[in-house]
Amino acid sequence: MSKLAGIFYFDFRPVTAGDESRVYSALKDGEQRPVRIYRSHGVVIGHAVSASDTVLGNDCCSSPDGTICTWDGRLDNRADLQNQSQFDSPHSDFDSDFALQAYRNEGPSGFGDLIGDWSAAIWDAPARRVLLASDYAGIRPLYYYRGSDRLMWSSCLTDLVRWTGLNELDEDYVASFLTQGNAANRTPYRGVYPVPSGHSVCVSADRIVRRAFWDLPFRQETRFKDERCYEEQLKALFREAVSVRLDKRGRSCAELSGGLDSSAIVCMASQLRATGSHPEVVTFSYAHERSTEARYFQEVERTCNFPAVHLQLEDFPFVAPAQVGNAAPSWWQPRFRELARRMATLDSSVFLTGQFGDFIMGNTVDDADQVADYLQNAQFLQAAREAFSWSQSLRVPIYSILWRALRTNCSSWAAPAIAQTTCDRYGSIDSIAPDFRKRVALSESEQDQERRWQSAPPGRRRRLRTLSEMLAARLLQAPETLQHISYTHPYAHRPLVEFMMTIPAAVVCRPGEPRRLMRRAFAGLLPPLILRRKSKTGYQAAYRQALLPLAVELLRQPADIRMVEYRYVDRSSFTERLRRFTEGLDCNEPQLRQLILFEFWLRSSGGPVDREMDEAALSWIN
User: Fold this and answer.
1) Host domain of residue 276
2) Are residues 354 and 489 in the same domain?
3) For residue range 119-130, what is the model confidence (pLDDT) as tens digits?
4) Residue by residue, what is the 3-state secondary structure of 232-253?
């Protein structure tokens, strides 16, 4: 995919050769790709395209008034836009033309018309401002730094951090990452931010304005008289979601775990290939010791007859000491690097995943919030019956179901997506140092997140809260190692998401029937063995196998733990939990994983250098 970068000086000073060199080097980055640099008063804006980008429409465009639009991504609804009067005359085949016209017609809110995985950077010459925007799910990355006299942006966090030299850690990010595994609208570096998903960031000499152009569909409702209509609409939207993401010119690749989500994608790709509209797909499956997934993904391979690649997770583990992320800590780096290498040999630039499928398709055993809808409508007998059904399914007292529904109806509260269910005393221990907890005012509430989901009807509030939190955290963003390809998720197709979030919850799942609608709609798509699956093997064994050597290394030299040196964690609590982890005892392992990853990332990155920054970078940004 494309890369974006640029610099905007607020005093409109002449752009220097050094400025152009910085932008050019970030865009080129050792790859053989054309680089386009545009200059104006106080602005240098750059765009790098791969060989496939021009065919896909990922080029840049300009208007007679000097406005320039650079684009990275894929636009899925170009045909629909061409039929709208406000998009009457795009003069080229580039997606960036539609983005620029949307902006010129409606300002930043016009980006809400653009469906796809994308980010854009626009230099608005008449208004003398830069506008950065990212799609509703934040899949294509874009970062920025606003200093006292300039704005710098890049689609690669590593490049932007290198430019600015600003490697002082953002403690709010650290606190969120260590406790929640992600940090909404932050990066590890103080002053460097991601463009929020579904938002535009307008930067001029005197101000910065963030504005949402997409909102949660909490006011919408989709109802059909015939339940079969839900099935037909789901099948049509899913077919579209897969079709627009497949490479129509060459091979695409797709993850195949053997679960319902990834299997449905591969089976739909097989149907599309049978129509002659798409080339073949190469599937990637992951196996590890004691895994039972092989029989399932091999069944899909036999059904679809696509070329298949099997990777052993012992060879490409969850984490390795020297592979813990680049500018930000991240999991699965060994696997991502191998995927990038294999895809290069296949000459493929598209990789489809099944991410988001569990959530969108209602793979939950607990959607007892459906009781709240009956209470809201004063249907008390039906509410009692519904609560009893969920009580039987979940094997919990009926009063707990009714109390949650009552609380949801009588306030703006919604239950969190994942409730604390463990009974051991380590279930709530996070090892955060008391002074650090006070310093960042850490609490369980989402301090910086918008709470638009609170306006939703009670029965839908929990799902919308979960969706809001996942999008704010940009959990679907392409990993930096794979940003050069179209790393994409059919279950995040915006029309599909909006449909599934606005239909009655009882259509999606029922007590004891997770994925109720999906199983009915995909009955003719999935092999019977897959369709009957009720559960899926997790990666817990692979996680533990990869993390054990790291835990042992930390215990070998506890005095060298950097998180303790920076006063982020308490040494005794952390080392006790590491010891318990190595012995297979309770230790709140999911959160402990975050601590281990962050510790090794600090070691590999060198840690914060807030005392002694690179002098050349300092002199430039100051």
Assistant:
1) 228-311+348-360+471-531
2) yes
3) 999 999 999 999
4) HHHHHHHHHHHHCCCCCCCCEE
